[in-house]
Write a structure and sequence with these properties.
The protein is mainly α. The protein has one domain: Four Helix Bundle (Hemerythrin (Met), subunit A). α2 packs parallel to α4 and α3 packs parallel to α5. The relative contact order is 0.15.
């Protein structure tokens, strides 16, 4: 069975941690916006507009695809969400800071802005956003931000789940790679690498729970791939 946190207050503690992370990161985002505004006249505006546009579409897709009915299930490893949140916020903020400080530099280590890279990054984010939203929509009320098993939890094999078992994680990984590329923020790809490792680790934990708890899931793993159809 799923292992649960041992103390009654653990869930509330993690909620407070998540709120604290979000508040600190919002303050950092506000500071990043202030720095960006101060340098606005010397920046190439098109990448910034592109970045803002894809983030808006990402939030819109999340809102449209999320269909939870407030049903609570049995949760485990909730700390993984806090860890992902801790790195996801910097993934959104640090590329803006990097773009701000390096946009006027040209060197062998940091070349001038390449709009083709911006297009590639935006494409990855949009594909990832679409794939994640498709997976969320297919799961419907059974989608959760946590590793969570709900009462009478069925095996979902519709939509993207016909081809891969974790379309939402696949979408997140594409987003993680694409977001820094929109602003040509190459050093920020280090955050992307950490996030990808965290997503893969959480995927492993989630699969272990699903195999234990969902009837037929182990057989489902034998006829589908994790993230990349026909490959892995």
């Amino acid at each position: 069975m799923i292992e649960f946190e041992g103390r009654k207050g653990t869930g509330r503690t993690e909620e407070w941690i998540n709120w604290a992370i979000s508040i600190v990161m919002l303050l950092l985002a506000a500071e990043a916006g202030k720095l960006l505004a101060e340098s606005w006249s010397s920046l190439n505006h098109l990448p910034v507009y592109t970045y803002a546009g894809i983030l808006f579409l990402y939030l819109l897709a999340e809102k449209a695809a999320y269909r939870s009915r407030g049903i609570k299930g049995r949760q485990s490893k909730k700390w993984t969400r806090s860890l992902l949140l801790f790195f996801w916020w910097p993934l959104l903020i640090v590329p803006v800071l990097e773009y701000r400080f390096y946009s006027n530099l040209e060197s062998d280590f940091y070349p001038q802005h390449n709009f083709a890279i911006t297009v590639a990054g935006a494409s990855l984010v949009l594909i990832g956003t679409g794939l994640r939203a498709w997976g969320m929509w297919a799961l419907g009320k059974y989608f959760s931000a946590h590793i969570e098993i709900m009462k009478n939890h069925p095996l979902i094999e519709s939509g993207p789940y016909k081809f891969i078992r974790h379309p939402a994680y696949a979408g997140n990984i594409l987003q993680a790679v694409g977001i820094p590329l929109v602003l040509n923020a190459y050093y920020s790809l280090g955050i992307s690498a950490v996030l990808i490792l965290l997503f893969l680790y959480r995927l492993k934990l989630e699969e272990e729970a699903l195999v234990r708890e969902i009837k037929g899931y182990e057989d489902y793993t034998k006829r589908t791939d994790r993230l990349i159809p026909k490959i892995w």
